[in-house]
Design goal:
By secondary structure, the protein is mainly β. It folds into two domains: about 40 residues, no CATH class; about 80 residues, RNA polymerase II/Efflux pump adaptor protein, barrel-sandwich hybrid domain (OB fold (Dihydrolipoamide Acetyltransferase, E2P), Beta Barrel). It is built from two helices and ten strands. The longest helix has 16 residues.
Length: about 160
């Protein structure tokens, strides 16, 4: 049961200011006031993507061509859509570190091509020294694993694509 403390509003405003000043996306804090009296605060903000760098227009040179140049292949990033928009994306519910196995050297929870059932552990996200199992939201086949073992992840980042 959380009681209203006069300092809580000022504390939350200070957290929001820290978030902005340090260009953070999320901050979570717990305050214990005594038995059955605590304050748990999570302050988060949507981070805007940096604008794309401007591209210079191609320069035309009037030189004779002996053969037609081969068409340039589109960059790999342009041919793949954003994994976060995939309807099968399983996203991180928190900021932390992703682990694909329960311990170093152990077999990963899932691999590409595995059939998973709803509720099955896909991976672990460690946050504040707590290991949080990330369950499959539905049954399906693992199409892609988008994070590496031990990689930091942001809130809402796509982790796995299920088919």
């Amino acid at each position: 049961m959380t009681k209203n403390h006069d300092s809580d509003v000022a504390f939350i405003k200070a957290l929001a200011e820290l978030l902005r000043e340090n260009d953070l996306s999320e901050l979570e804090v717990s305050r214990e006031y005594g038995e059955d009296d605590a304050l748990n605060v999570r302050v988060a903000r949507q981070m805007a993507a940096p604008p794309a760098p401007p591209q210079a227009a191609p320069i035309q040179v009037n030189a004779p061509q002996t053969s037609a140049p081969a068409p340039a292949a589109p960059p790999a990033a342009a041919t793949e859509e954003d994994p976060a928009l995939d309807p099968g994306a399983v996203t991180s519910p928190m900021v932390g570190t992703a682990y694909l196995a329960s311990e170093p050297g152990q077999a990963p929870f899932v691999q590409v091509g595995d059939q998973v059932s709803e509720g099955q552990t896909l991976l672990i996200v460690e946050a504040m020294k707590t290991m949080n199992q990330i369950p499959s939201p539905r049954s399906g086949k693992v199409k892609r694993i988008l994070v590496e073992d031990g990689a930091p992840v942001e809130y809402g980042a796509p982790l796995v694509i299920l088919g």
